[in-house]
Protein backbone atom coordinates (compact mmCIF):
# COMPACT_ATOMS: atom_id res chain seq x y z
CA UNK A 1 0.00 0.00 0.00
CA UNK A 2 2.95 2.33 0.59
CA UNK A 3 3.75 2.14 -3.12
CA UNK A 4 0.19 3.17 -3.97
CA UNK A 5 0.46 6.20 -1.72
CA UNK A 6 3.84 6.94 -3.29
CA UNK A 7 2.19 6.96 -6.73
CA UNK A 8 -0.29 9.58 -5.55
CA UNK A 9 2.43 11.56 -3.76
CA UNK A 10 4.52 11.76 -6.94
CA UNK A 11 1.62 13.34 -8.79
CA UNK A 12 0.83 15.91 -6.11
CA UNK A 13 4.46 16.92 -5.59
CA UNK A 14 5.17 17.47 -9.30
CA UNK A 15 1.90 19.40 -9.71
CA UNK A 16 2.95 21.58 -6.77
CA UNK A 17 6.33 22.21 -8.42
CA UNK A 18 4.56 23.42 -11.56
CA UNK A 19 2.31 25.69 -9.50
CA UNK A 20 5.26 27.21 -7.62
CA UNK A 21 7.27 27.71 -10.81
CA UNK A 22 4.31 29.48 -12.40
CA UNK A 23 3.93 31.66 -9.29
CA UNK A 24 7.63 32.57 -9.53
CA UNK A 25 7.31 33.35 -13.23
CA UNK A 26 9.62 30.53 -14.30
CA UNK A 27 6.77 28.94 -16.26
CA UNK A 28 4.97 31.61 -18.23
CA UNK A 29 1.32 31.84 -19.14
CA UNK A 30 -0.43 30.78 -22.30
CA UNK A 31 1.92 29.73 -25.07
CA UNK A 32 4.89 29.38 -22.71
CA UNK A 33 3.05 26.83 -20.57
CA UNK A 34 1.57 25.00 -23.54
CA UNK A 35 5.06 24.22 -24.82
CA UNK A 36 5.26 21.58 -22.07
CA UNK A 37 2.11 19.93 -23.37
CA UNK A 38 3.19 20.06 -26.99
CA UNK A 39 6.59 18.49 -26.34
CA UNK A 40 4.89 15.79 -24.26
CA UNK A 41 2.22 15.19 -26.92
CA UNK A 42 4.55 15.04 -29.92
CA UNK A 43 7.65 13.39 -28.44
CA UNK A 44 7.84 12.34 -24.78
CA UNK A 45 4.49 10.55 -24.40
CA UNK A 46 4.82 8.56 -27.66
CA UNK A 47 8.27 7.43 -26.50
CA UNK A 48 6.83 6.37 -23.13
CA UNK A 49 3.95 4.49 -24.76
CA UNK A 50 6.10 2.67 -27.30
CA UNK A 51 8.77 1.62 -24.80
CA UNK A 52 6.11 0.34 -22.36
CA UNK A 53 3.95 -1.53 -24.87
CA UNK A 54 6.83 -3.00 -26.91
CA UNK A 55 8.10 -4.81 -23.81
CA UNK A 56 4.69 -6.12 -22.67
CA UNK A 57 3.08 -9.54 -22.90
CA UNK A 58 0.33 -9.53 -25.54
CA UNK A 59 -1.33 -12.68 -24.24
CA UNK A 60 -3.31 -10.64 -21.70
CA UNK A 61 -5.04 -8.72 -24.47
CA UNK A 62 -7.58 -11.54 -24.90
CA UNK A 63 -8.68 -11.33 -21.26
CA UNK A 64 -12.38 -10.60 -20.57
CA UNK A 65 -11.17 -7.99 -18.06
CA UNK A 66 -9.93 -5.87 -20.97
CA UNK A 67 -13.27 -6.32 -22.74
CA UNK A 68 -15.14 -5.16 -19.63
CA UNK A 69 -12.95 -2.08 -19.34
CA UNK A 70 -13.55 -1.32 -23.02
CA UNK A 71 -17.33 -1.56 -22.59
CA UNK A 72 -17.24 0.56 -19.42
CA UNK A 73 -15.10 3.25 -21.08
CA UNK A 74 -17.27 3.60 -24.18
CA UNK A 75 -20.54 3.44 -22.22
CA UNK A 76 -19.38 6.09 -19.76
CA UNK A 77 -18.40 8.41 -22.60
CA UNK A 78 -21.85 7.85 -24.09
CA UNK A 79 -23.62 8.64 -20.82
CA UNK A 80 -21.66 11.89 -20.47
CA UNK A 81 -22.52 12.83 -24.05
CA UNK A 82 -26.23 12.32 -23.41
CA UNK A 83 -26.13 14.32 -20.17
CA UNK A 84 -24.27 17.11 -21.95
CA UNK A 85 -26.86 17.15 -24.72
CA UNK A 86 -29.79 17.57 -22.32
CA UNK A 87 -28.45 19.47 -19.30
CA UNK A 88 -25.39 21.59 -20.11
CA UNK A 89 -25.16 22.09 -23.83
CA UNK A 90 -21.59 22.44 -25.03
CA UNK A 91 -19.90 22.27 -28.41
CA UNK A 92 -18.93 18.88 -29.76
CA UNK A 93 -15.26 19.46 -28.94
CA UNK A 94 -16.02 20.58 -25.36
CA UNK A 95 -18.34 17.61 -24.89
CA UNK A 96 -15.57 15.28 -26.04
CA UNK A 97 -13.20 16.80 -23.46
CA UNK A 98 -15.71 16.06 -20.69
CA UNK A 99 -16.51 12.60 -22.03
CA UNK A 100 -12.80 11.73 -22.09
CA UNK A 101 -12.37 13.10 -18.56
CA UNK A 102 -15.21 10.86 -17.34
CA UNK A 103 -13.77 7.64 -18.77
CA UNK A 104 -10.04 7.87 -19.60
CA UNK A 105 -8.17 6.49 -16.60
CA UNK A 106 -4.60 6.87 -15.37
CA UNK A 107 -3.03 3.53 -16.28
CA UNK A 108 0.64 4.45 -15.88
CA UNK A 109 1.91 6.26 -12.80
CA UNK A 110 -1.13 5.35 -10.67
CA UNK A 111 -2.44 2.31 -12.55
CA UNK A 112 0.76 0.30 -12.29
CA UNK A 113 1.26 0.60 -8.50
CA UNK A 114 -2.47 0.17 -7.89
CA UNK A 115 -2.52 -2.99 -10.00
CA UNK A 116 0.58 -4.36 -8.34
CA UNK A 117 -0.23 -3.65 -4.70
CA UNK A 118 -4.05 -3.48 -4.56
CA UNK A 119 -5.06 -6.03 -7.21
CA UNK A 120 -1.86 -8.05 -6.80
CA UNK A 121 -1.43 -8.41 -10.56
CA UNK A 122 -0.30 -5.83 -13.14
CA UNK A 123 -1.15 -8.11 -16.08
CA UNK A 124 -4.12 -6.06 -17.28
CA UNK A 125 -2.59 -2.58 -17.07
CA UNK A 126 -0.66 -2.55 -20.35
CA UNK A 127 -3.55 -4.03 -22.40
CA UNK A 128 -5.81 -1.38 -20.87
CA UNK A 129 -3.24 1.26 -21.79
CA UNK A 130 -3.11 0.06 -25.41
CA UNK A 131 -6.91 0.02 -25.54
CA UNK A 132 -6.96 3.68 -24.57
CA UNK A 133 -4.11 4.81 -26.79
CA UNK A 134 -4.83 2.81 -29.94
CA UNK A 135 -8.64 2.64 -29.84
CA UNK A 136 -10.07 5.50 -27.76
CA UNK A 137 -7.45 8.21 -28.34
CA UNK A 138 -8.12 8.53 -32.09
CA UNK A 139 -11.78 9.29 -31.42
CA UNK A 140 -10.98 11.66 -28.55
CA UNK A 141 -8.37 13.59 -30.52
CA UNK A 142 -10.63 13.71 -33.59
CA UNK A 143 -13.45 15.07 -31.41
CA UNK A 144 -11.25 17.70 -29.79
CA UNK A 145 -9.93 18.78 -33.18
CA UNK A 146 -13.35 18.91 -34.85
CA UNK A 147 -13.83 22.25 -36.61
CA UNK A 148 -17.17 21.69 -38.34
CA UNK A 149 -19.64 19.19 -39.73
CA UNK A 150 -18.79 19.31 -43.42
CA UNK A 151 -17.15 16.24 -44.99
CA UNK A 152 -13.71 17.82 -45.29
CA UNK A 153 -13.67 18.82 -41.61
CA UNK A 154 -14.84 15.38 -40.52
CA UNK A 155 -12.15 13.63 -42.59
CA UNK A 156 -9.50 16.04 -41.31
CA UNK A 157 -10.54 15.38 -37.70
CA UNK A 158 -10.50 11.61 -38.21
CA UNK A 159 -7.04 11.75 -39.77
CA UNK A 160 -5.71 13.83 -36.88
CA UNK A 161 -6.93 11.15 -34.49
CA UNK A 162 -5.59 8.16 -36.40
CA UNK A 163 -2.20 9.76 -37.09
CA UNK A 164 -1.66 11.20 -33.59
CA UNK A 165 1.83 10.31 -32.27
CA UNK A 166 0.48 8.49 -29.20
CA UNK A 167 -1.75 6.31 -31.37
CA UNK A 168 1.03 5.41 -33.80
CA UNK A 169 3.35 4.65 -30.87
CA UNK A 170 0.80 2.31 -29.26
CA UNK A 171 0.17 0.43 -32.51
CA UNK A 172 3.88 0.07 -33.30
CA UNK A 173 4.61 -1.05 -29.75
CA UNK A 174 1.89 -3.67 -29.96
CA UNK A 175 3.23 -4.98 -33.27
CA UNK A 176 6.75 -5.23 -31.87
CA UNK A 177 5.49 -7.09 -28.80
CA UNK A 178 3.22 -9.41 -30.82
CA UNK A 179 5.98 -10.54 -33.19
CA UNK A 180 8.39 -11.02 -30.29
CA UNK A 181 11.04 -8.62 -31.56
CA UNK A 182 13.46 -7.25 -28.98
CA UNK A 183 14.24 -3.61 -29.71
CA UNK A 184 18.01 -3.01 -29.55
CA UNK A 185 19.22 -1.02 -26.55
CA UNK A 186 20.70 1.62 -28.83
CA UNK A 187 17.09 2.46 -29.82
CA UNK A 188 15.18 1.60 -26.66
CA UNK A 189 17.43 3.37 -24.15
CA UNK A 190 16.99 6.86 -25.70
CA UNK A 191 13.25 6.27 -25.98
CA UNK A 192 13.01 5.33 -22.31
CA UNK A 193 14.90 8.46 -21.29
CA UNK A 194 12.69 10.64 -23.48
CA UNK A 195 9.57 8.87 -22.24
CA UNK A 196 10.59 9.59 -18.66
CA UNK A 197 10.02 13.29 -19.34
CA UNK A 198 6.38 12.80 -20.34
CA UNK A 199 4.62 12.62 -16.99
CA UNK A 200 6.67 15.38 -15.24
CA UNK A 201 6.09 17.79 -18.14
CA UNK A 202 2.34 17.18 -18.21
CA UNK A 203 2.04 17.44 -14.43
CA UNK A 204 4.08 20.65 -14.21
CA UNK A 205 1.98 22.25 -16.94
CA UNK A 206 -1.09 21.08 -15.05
CA UNK A 207 0.18 22.68 -11.84
CA UNK A 208 1.04 25.90 -13.67
CA UNK A 209 -2.49 26.05 -15.10
CA UNK A 210 -3.90 26.19 -11.55
CA UNK A 211 -2.33 29.61 -10.91
CA UNK A 212 -4.96 32.31 -10.98
CA UNK A 213 -7.95 29.97 -11.29
CA UNK A 214 -9.99 28.47 -8.48
CA UNK A 215 -11.30 24.94 -8.67
CA UNK A 216 -14.81 24.74 -10.17
CA UNK A 217 -14.89 28.45 -10.99
CA UNK A 218 -15.98 27.61 -14.53
CA UNK A 219 -17.82 24.65 -16.09
CA UNK A 220 -18.88 23.48 -12.65
CA UNK A 221 -21.73 21.17 -13.68
CA UNK A 222 -19.84 19.39 -16.49
CA UNK A 223 -16.87 18.88 -14.16
CA UNK A 224 -18.99 17.47 -11.32
CA UNK A 225 -20.77 15.15 -13.75
CA UNK A 226 -17.49 13.94 -15.27
CA UNK A 227 -16.03 13.36 -11.80
CA UNK A 228 -19.08 11.43 -10.57
CA UNK A 229 -19.14 9.29 -13.71
CA UNK A 230 -15.43 8.51 -13.41
CA UNK A 231 -15.51 7.46 -9.76
CA UNK A 232 -19.02 5.98 -9.47
CA UNK A 233 -20.60 5.57 -12.90
CA UNK A 234 -17.75 3.80 -14.67
CA UNK A 235 -17.16 1.24 -11.86
CA UNK A 236 -20.92 0.59 -11.76
CA UNK A 237 -21.00 -0.01 -15.51
CA UNK A 238 -17.91 -2.23 -15.20
CA UNK A 239 -19.67 -4.24 -12.48
CA UNK A 240 -22.72 -4.79 -14.69
CA UNK A 241 -20.57 -5.66 -17.71
CA UNK A 242 -18.37 -7.94 -15.61
CA UNK A 243 -21.34 -9.91 -14.32
CA UNK A 244 -22.72 -10.14 -17.87
CA UNK A 245 -19.33 -11.43 -19.09
CA UNK A 246 -19.25 -14.02 -16.31
CA UNK A 247 -16.38 -12.43 -14.36
CA UNK A 248 -15.94 -13.24 -10.70
CA UNK A 249 -13.29 -13.20 -8.01
CA UNK A 250 -10.02 -11.50 -8.79
CA UNK A 251 -10.94 -10.75 -12.43
CA UNK A 252 -14.07 -8.83 -11.45
CA UNK A 253 -12.14 -7.07 -8.69
CA UNK A 254 -9.41 -6.07 -11.16
CA UNK A 255 -11.96 -4.65 -13.62
CA UNK A 256 -13.62 -2.56 -10.90
CA UNK A 257 -10.36 -1.19 -9.54
CA UNK A 258 -9.15 -0.24 -13.03
CA UNK A 259 -12.49 1.43 -13.75
CA UNK A 260 -12.16 3.52 -10.58
CA UNK A 261 -8.70 4.86 -11.41
CA UNK A 262 -8.54 8.67 -11.60
CA UNK A 263 -8.71 10.55 -14.88
CA UNK A 264 -5.39 10.41 -16.73
CA UNK A 265 -3.26 13.52 -17.17
CA UNK A 266 -3.25 12.71 -20.88
CA UNK A 267 -6.83 14.00 -21.06
CA UNK A 268 -5.62 17.38 -19.86
CA UNK A 269 -2.66 17.16 -22.23
CA UNK A 270 -4.95 16.52 -25.20
CA UNK A 271 -7.29 19.34 -24.18
CA UNK A 272 -4.40 21.76 -23.65
CA UNK A 273 -2.77 20.79 -26.95
CA UNK A 274 -5.97 21.52 -28.89
CA UNK A 275 -6.99 24.33 -26.49
CA UNK A 276 -10.54 23.15 -25.93
CA UNK A 277 -12.26 21.94 -22.75
CA UNK A 278 -9.15 22.63 -20.65
CA UNK A 279 -11.06 23.62 -17.50
CA UNK A 280 -13.24 20.50 -17.40
CA UNK A 281 -10.26 18.26 -18.12
CA UNK A 282 -8.00 19.96 -15.57
CA UNK A 283 -10.54 20.10 -12.73
CA UNK A 284 -11.74 16.52 -13.29
CA UNK A 285 -8.15 15.25 -13.22
CA UNK A 286 -7.58 17.16 -9.98
CA UNK A 287 -10.77 16.01 -8.25
CA UNK A 288 -10.60 12.37 -9.30
CA UNK A 289 -6.96 12.11 -8.26
CA UNK A 290 -7.91 13.17 -4.74
CA UNK A 291 -11.15 11.19 -4.54
CA UNK A 292 -10.20 7.96 -6.31
CA UNK A 293 -8.29 6.51 -3.36
CA UNK A 294 -11.34 6.35 -1.03
CA UNK A 295 -13.41 5.06 -3.97
CA UNK A 296 -10.93 2.23 -4.56
CA UNK A 297 -10.71 1.47 -0.86
CA UNK A 298 -14.50 1.06 -0.87
CA UNK A 299 -14.29 -1.34 -3.81
CA UNK A 300 -11.50 -3.25 -2.05
CA UNK A 301 -13.66 -3.59 1.07
CA UNK A 302 -16.59 -4.95 -0.94
CA UNK A 303 -14.89 -7.08 -3.59
CA UNK A 304 -11.23 -7.49 -2.62
Number of domains: 1
Helix content: over 70%
- Ends apart, CA distance between termini: 14 Å
How much beta, percentage-wise? Answer: under 5%
Morphology:
globular
Extended strand count: 0
Give the SSE order as H and E letters.
HHHHHHHHHHHHHH
Radius of gyration equals: 18 Å
- Give start-end ranges of low-pLDDT stretches: none
Largest sheet: none
Task: Give average pLDDT, whole number.
Answer: 84
The total of helices stands at 14
Main location: membrane
Pfam family, one: Mem_trans
InterPro entries: Mem_transp_PIN-like, Na+/solute_symporter_sf
Protein name: ABC transporter permease
Tell me what you see in this structure:
By secondary structure, the protein is mostly helical. The protein has one domain (56-193, 213-303). The protein is built from 14 helices and no strands. The longest helix is centred in the C-terminal third of the chain and has 26 residues, at 278-303. The two termini are 14 Å apart. 52% of the residues are buried. The model has no long low-confidence stretch (mean pLDDT 84). This is ABC transporter permease. It is found in: Cell membrane. Belongs to the auxin efflux carrier (TC 2.A.69) family. Keywords: Cell membrane, Membrane, Transmembrane, Transmembrane helix, Transport. It is a multi-pass membrane protein.
Amino acid sequence: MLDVLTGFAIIFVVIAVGFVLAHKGVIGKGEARLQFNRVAFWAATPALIFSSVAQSDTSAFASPVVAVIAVASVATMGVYGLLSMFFFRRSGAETMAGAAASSYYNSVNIGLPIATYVIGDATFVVPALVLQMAVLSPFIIAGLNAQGTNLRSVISSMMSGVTAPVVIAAVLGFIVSAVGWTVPDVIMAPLEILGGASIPMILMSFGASLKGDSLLDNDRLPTIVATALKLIGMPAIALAAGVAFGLSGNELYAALILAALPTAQNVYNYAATYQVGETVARDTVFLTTFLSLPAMLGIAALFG
